[in-house]
């Protein structure tokens, strides 16, 4: 997997102070996308153990309290990204207690493959759907167009899966 940018301090991409990783690779190629440079899965830098360790260290840095990790792109659920993203979200949940994970994807939750669902079960909020230029609304929080949904993911250990509810997030 490649990534285009990593921000160790971000207050734009999700609620509160966060770390944000913009991965490379997106098959949606939405008209009007502000991040077209991330479409190619080979653009940017190679995602390696050092950057993964940096994300964990930044999330656990006591000097700057970060609320969580934001994963955007490109598309974190792009098929070639799934192994690295799954490893990362599992590690964040294990080593960064109390941190939440937001993930933006052009897929809708109904379209997810079993491999993509394996990632989603470890995140807290999914922003789903392609960016639609004709539905742009600058007043929306954490999404670019009104068709995109913010979905709260709930773990369901009894069924070894997840449930979700479409939420209206009032970010603080």
Overview of the molecule:
It is a single chain. This protein has 172 residues and is of the alpha/beta class. It contains three helices and eight strands, in the order βββαβαβαβββ. The model is unreliable at 168-172 (pLDDT under 50).
Assembly category = single chain
Give the biggest beta sheet: 8 strands, mixed
Strand order of the largest sheet: 3-1-2-4-5-6-7-8
Overall average residue pLDDT: 88
Give the distance, in angstroms, between the N- and C-terminal Cα atoms. 32 Å
Helix content: 10-25%
As residue ranges, the low-confidence spans are: 168-172
Tag the structure with descriptive keywords.
172 residues, alpha/beta, eight-stranded mixed beta sheet, 3 helices, globular, disordered C terminus
Précis, in short:
This protein is an alpha/beta fold and 172 residues long. The chain is built from three helices and eight strands.
Helix-strand layout with pairing:
Elements: E1 2-10, E2 18-23, E3 45-46, H1 49-59, E4 68-72, H2 82-95, E5 100-104, H3 114-120, E6 125-128, E7 149-156, E8 161-167
Parallel strand pairs: 2-4, 4-5, 5-6
Antiparallel strand pairs: 1-2, 1-3, 6-7, 7-8
């Amino acid at each position: 997997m490649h990534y285009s940018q990593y921000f160790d301090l971000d207050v734009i991409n999700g609620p509160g102070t966060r770390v944000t990783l913009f991965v490379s690779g997106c098959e949606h190629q939405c008209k009007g996308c502000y991040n077209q440079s991330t479409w190619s899965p080979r653009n940017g830098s190679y995602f390696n153990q050092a950057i993964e360790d940096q994300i964990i260290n930044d999330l656990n840095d006591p000097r700057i309290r970060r609320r969580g990790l934001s994963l955007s792109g490109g598309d974190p659920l792009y098929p070639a990204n799934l192994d690295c993203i799954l490893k990362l979200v599992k590690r964040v949940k294990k080593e960064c207690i109390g941190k939440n994970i937001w993930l933006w994807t052009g897929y809708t939750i109904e379209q997810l493959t079993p491999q993509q669902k394996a990632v989603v079960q470890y995140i807290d909020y999914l922003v789903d759907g392609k960016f639609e230029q004709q539905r742009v609304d600058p007043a929306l929080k954490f999404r670019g167009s009104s068709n995109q949904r913010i979905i709260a993911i709930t773990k369901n250990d009894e069924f070894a899966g997840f449930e979700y509810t479409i939420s209206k997030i009032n970010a603080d």
